[in-house]
Amino acid sequence: SLSDRLGSALKDLRGKGRLSDADIDRTCREIRLALLEADVSLPVVRGFIAKVKERAKGAEVSGALNPAQQVVKIVNDELVGILGGETRRIEYAKKPPTVIMLAGLQGAGKTTLAGKLGNWLKKQGHQPLLVACDLQRPGAVSQLQIVGERAGVKVFAPDPGTSIGQTGELGTVSSGDPVAVARDGVAEATAQHYDVVVIDTAGRLGIDEELMRQASDIREATEPDEVLFVVDAMIGQDAVSTAEAFQDGVGFTGVVLTKLDGDARGGAALSVREVTGRPIMFASSGEKLDDFDVFHPDRMASRILGMGDVLSLIEQAEQHWDAQQAEAAAAKITQGELTLEDFLDQMLMIRKMGPIGNILGMLPGAGQMKDALSQVDDKQLDRVQAIIRGMTPAERDNPKIINASRRLRIANGSGVTVSEVNQLVDRFFEARKMMAQMSGRMGMGVGGGRKN
Ligand code: GDP
Ligand code: MG
């Protein structure tokens, strides 16, 4: 998957002190392949890689982030940018009703979306009316009626004649002309004080002139505030040509991605926004009414990157990491001179980021480490902190002097048992030895990865 490829491309950068141009080129090649494999269109990939490369090469050495983290951040920023940056909300009409028209190929998920949108609008405090303008496909009108009933939202439908069920107390028009139904639907909404109208339209299996003309006629007749192009995220590269055709034939103000619950490779999402310049506004991820949400570019980017929530960890590290402190600690670690005082400082610094379980949970691969993680809890850390605080500065600075009588005093002072004090001191010595060995072998300091 795209996430896996990007993940492994970026993993190669971990542990590097500084990125050479060759490192960046190689990583960008991997990212390029990953994006192409995910069905992102070529021009979009090219533009994306060029931007990432430029920023990576010009990146300043950061005190808070190591080079791999820095590239992750750049890739993420650019992904968010390509996905539209900010979340774009519906623009409601100053004078209701707000008219929202849905357009897209058959099977894209328009009718399902009409129900979800109705449900969502209702929860937002609106009174939506769904209008059934797909008079092409047999059963399309009753499908919308079922969906509307499930959502508890009224449906305006053409006169069913005998084949389609009843339409409720709402007015009806003669069947056959989707443009007339759309127009009457909006008029009905105005008369009955519905404040949002969602127009469900017909689609075809492929792009076809008559379909475009019909959609475009409905648009002209109802002057919608928003035209949402609904596209199945699973169709990959075809999403781009379909989007272009709808942009030329009907025009739209926003995009809705559907079927994101399938094994969509993310390519459609990346391309459509970039190619059409129209924002992705909603995402649909299942057949149930609630499988629907406002589209958040930042969330989609981290989903595509698939690096746990490593990104929020990076953000927090940037905010909280004191580079100088980290550097000093790293030097001490390398020389095996870390003191309990440093240890306490580092612990406090890490804990500023939030509960320890959350912090560890954000690391990639943390899913499989659940068992190990469940043993690290904040209460335990509180006790460690209490023990160290119960020591004199001399003891913290030189833990070797902590003999049996000192241990007893510390235990009594911090309200723990002597064996807990023993454990902490033993583990500290072990960890200090191990860290010194590790940092010696890697030829670098631990912590911020700051160089120069
Ligand atoms: P329309 O022809 O554009 O109106 O598409 P429909 O709303 O009739 O949807 C076509 C099919 O896709 C139906 O079987 C829906 O249940 C299904 N569908 C729609 N949206 C989603 C989605 O987000 N996820 C999944 N898994 N199925 C969806
Ligand atoms: Mg439909």
Automatic annotation (TrEMBL):
E.C. no: 3.6.5.4
SMART domains attached to this UniProt entry: AAA, SRP54, SRP54_N
Pfam families linked: SRP54 (PF00448), SRP54_N (PF02881), SRP_SPB (PF02978)
CDD domains assigned: SRP_G (cd18539)
Gene3D superfamilies in UniProt: P-loop containing nucleotide triphosphate hydrolases (3.40.50.300), Signal recognition particle SRP54, nucleotide-binding domain (1.20.120.140), Signal recognition particle, SRP54 subunit, M-domain (1.10.260.30)
Keywords: Cytoplasm, GTP-binding, Hydrolase, Nucleotide-binding, Ribonucleoprotein, RNA-binding, Signal recognition particle
Binding site for GTP: 104-111, 200-204, 258-261
InterPro entries cross-referenced by the UniProt entry: AAA+_ATPase, P-loop_NTPase, Signal_recog_part_SRP54_M_sf, Signal_recog_particl_SRP54_hlx, Signal_recog_particle_SRP54_M, SRP, SRP54, SRP54_GTPase_dom
Domain spans labelled SRP54-type proteins GTP-binding: 279-292
Compartment(s): Cytoplasm
Catalytic activity: GTP + H2O = GDP + phosphate + H(+)
Family under the similarity heading: Belongs to the GTP-binding SRP family. SRP54 subfamily.
Assembly and interaction partners: Part of the signal recognition particle protein translocation system, which is composed of SRP and FtsY.
Biological function: Involved in targeting and insertion of nascent membrane proteins into the cytoplasmic membrane. Binds to the hydrophobic signal sequence of the ribosome-nascent chain (RNC) as it emerges from the ribosomes. The SRP-RNC complex is then targeted to the cytoplasmic membrane where it interacts with the SRP receptor FtsY.
Domain remark from Swiss-Prot or TrEMBL: Composed of three domains: the N-terminal N domain, which is responsible for interactions with the ribosome, the central G domain, which binds GTP, and the C-terminal M domain, which binds the RNA and the signal sequence of the RNC.
Protein's UniProt name: Signal recognition particle protein
Species this chain originates from: Gordonia tangerina
Organism classification: Bacteria, Bacillati, Actinomycetota, Actinomycetes, Mycobacteriales
